[in-house]
Write a structure and sequence with these properties.
Shape of chain A: elongated
CATH topology of chain B: Lipocalin
Shape of chain B: elongated
Strand order of the largest sheet of chain A: 1-2
Keywords (chain B): Signal
CATH superfamily of chain B: Lipid/polyisoprenoid-binding, YceI-like
Radius of gyration of chain A: 19 Å
Number of domains of chain A: 1
CATH architecture of chain B: Beta Barrel
Oligomer: heterodimer
Radius of gyration of chain B: 19 Å
Order of helices and strands of chain B: HEEEEEHEEEEE
CATH class of chain B: Mainly Beta
Number of helices of chain B: 2
Number of domains of chain B: 1
InterPro entries (chain B): Lipid/polyisoprenoid-bd_YceI, TTHA0802/YceI-like_sf
Distance between the termini of chain A: 18 Å
Largest interface: A-B, 18 and 22 residues
Organism (chain B): Solimonas fluminis
Pfam families (chain B): YceI (PF04264)
CATH superfamily of chain A: Transmembrane di-heme cytochromes, Chain C
Distance between the termini of chain B: 21 Å
Helix content of chain B: 10-25%
Number of helices of chain A: 4
Protein name (chain B): Polyisoprenoid-binding protein
Order of helices and strands of chain A: HHHEEH
Largest sheet of chain B: 10 strands, antiparallel
Strand content of chain A: under 5%
Helix content of chain A: 55-70%
Chain lengths: 187, 185
């Protein structure tokens, strides 16, 4: 369709973006803390919260990807060189892929370790794989490796947004922010 | 002729006492399930000794004695295993074995029975009733299987901070399957 592309991210896309950031910061902090804790009731609670956040991130990522098919993302500034465009697309789709893959690896790892994931303590998510110690350790490695990659890509993503804002002085960062002022790009 | 009747007599005598039947450990299992924050975590014991005399025709002559090696617990991961045998939980060091000794067995219906006896975990004996079923298998083996539930706090399993709120459920279902070798004739 020849619908004109929007100049800004809409409220739903922005909510999905910033909520995801908040959740992954929380999940990362919990994962970091609980990894080194001695087994205790508190640790079991943190594990559960971490998994619930992961399931939520996964669900939001699916919705965001679907939403993006409907409400197209604003185009990149025309002045951007090709390598930057490729980099931007790769990192955006890489981020979506990681937001799906990290919770998936965590869920599989939980199953392999014999702890089913029960969302909010109420909704059991079926185990795709059975208990398997070696596979559990492998998936733990995968989960941590993917998280490390996410950390780097998020860093790159944030650095690129700041570079656009302060160096290129374009609207790449501000179009993902709520409109503070009225002189934002017209719809 | 004398010898022949002696053999007959001894065979008959053997038949009267329900003879201990070997338990095929590889095809038997004792498992349990602990629920924490709505998540059921299953475990089993890899090593146990079982002495079972079972006679379907005269269940009241049957008896069972089991000893479970606490250190052989398999709760899915090394972390869960080591937590399970800590002092607060099964206390491997203080009480390396959990035992069950039946006091009576009675029939409930076709293939259904009930054993009463003393279950001792962490040195605490408690009377329990265990319903089970017996099914004859190919080759004369018999599969005994059943399920019962214990309250872990009856045995002092998991204490202190683990009992706060209802993080870890008190009821722990226990399942077992014992495959008995053919009765000796």
């Amino acid at each position: 369709m020849s619908q004109p592309l929007p100049q800004r991210y809409g409220a739903i896309a922005q909510a999905g973006h910033w909520l995801t950031l908040l959740l992954i910061v929380g999940a990362f902090a919990l994962g970091w803390i609980m990894g080194d804790m001695k087994m205790s009731p508190t640790r079991l609670k943190l594990f559960s919260y971490h998994k619930w956040i992961g399931v939520t991130v996964f669900g939001i990522a699916v919705l965001r990807i679907l939403w993006r098919q409907w409400a197209k993302a604003p185009p990149l500034p025309p002045a951007m060189p090709a390598w930057e465009r490729i980099g931007a697309h790769l990192s955006h789709w890489g981020l979506y892929a990681l937001l799906l893959a990290i919770p998936l690896s965590g869920w599989l790892m939980s199953s392999a370790k014999g702890f089913q994931t029960v969302y909010l303590g109420q909704f059991p998510i079926p185990d795709l794989i059975g208990r398997d110690r070696e596979l559990g350790k492998l998936l733990e490695e995968v989960h941590e490796l993917l998280t490390t990659i996410l950390l780097f890509v998020v860093g790159l993503h944030a650095a690129a947004a700041l570079k656009h804002h302060y160096h290129d002085k374009d609207d790449v960062l501000t179009r993902m922010l709520p409109r503070w002022r009225n002189n934002g790009a017209a719809r | 002729m004398k010898l022949f009747s002696a053999i007959l007599l001894s065979l008959a005598t053997l038949g009267v006492q329900a003879a201990p039947r070997t338990v095929d450990a590889a095809r038997s299992e004792i498992s349990f399930s602990v629920k924490q924050m709505g998540v059921a975590v299953d475990g089993r014991f890899r090593r146990f000794e079982a002495q079972v005399d079972f006679d379907a025709a005269r269940p009241e002559t049957s008896s069972a004695a089991l000893a479970v090696d606490i250190a052989s617990v398999d709760a899915g991961s090394e972390e869960a295993d080591s937590t399970a045998v800590e002092r607060a939980w099964l206390d491997k060091a203080g009480f390396p074995r959990a035992t069950f000794k039946s006091s009576s067995v009675r029939a409930l219906g076709p293939g259904k029975y009930e054993a009463r006896g003393l279950l001792t975990i962490k040195g605490k004996p408690r009377e329990i009733t265990v319903p089970f079923s017996a099914a004859e298998q190919a080759g004369g083996t018999t599969l005994l299987s059943g399920q019962f539930s214990i309250r872990r706090t009856d045995f002092g399993i998991g204490g202190g901070e683990w009992n706060e709120g209802d993080l870890v459920s008190n009821d722990v279902p226990v399942k077992f399957k014992l495959l008995l070798a053919p009765a000796k004739q």
